[in-house]
């Protein structure tokens, strides 16, 4: 973070060539911007934007900027806050303040999970065919009896666990 700040100051002074003033990963500011499109960008990881938040000042703000050049002991607390608000959009406390966006995200997640469950239920009831006969308990019992009657795998398989004389499973 220190390197970014130092590099930004070097570029502002025009020390290393004729590169434009810009923040890392952003485009250079242009002089003919339309009001809603500014290059102001402040965040916790890079709290020093290249441009002030307010670039077009009214008469009261210009008078406050002139007063800023004098002694800061003569400025009231409200004037200092107003000067801060001219330079920055929000304080660190405001940047770090939690938002309630997580409630919206969780609401959307639960909505889509519920919708998906409803869709799966609808498909099981109206779209998928009924279970095949091979999955019924009667069919499985007949299949097991057929394997035992054929004495399939009598050494280690199912037939080795069946007692053919008593007609029950070995204990």
Morphology call: rod-shaped
Tell how many strands the DSSP assignment holds. Answer: 2
Helix content: 40-55%
Low-confidence stretches: 14-30
Instruction: Name the strands of the widest sheet in spatial order.
Output: 1-2
Largest sheet: 2 strands, antiparallel
Structure description:
With 171 residues, the protein is mainly α. 48% of the residues lie in helices and 2% in strands. The chain is built from seven helices and two strands. Strands 1-2 form a two-stranded antiparallel ribbon. The protein is rod-shaped, with a radius of gyration of 38 Å. Mean pLDDT is 80; it is low at 14-30.
Short description:
By secondary structure, this protein is mainly alpha-helical.
List the helices and strands and how they pair.
Blueprint: H1 2-13, H2 59-68, H3 77-87, H4 92-96, H5 101-127, H6 137-149, H7 158-161, E1 162-163, E2 168-169
Antiparallel strand pairs: 1-2
Features:
two-stranded antiparallel sheet; mainly alpha; 171 residues; single chain; 2 strands; 2% strand
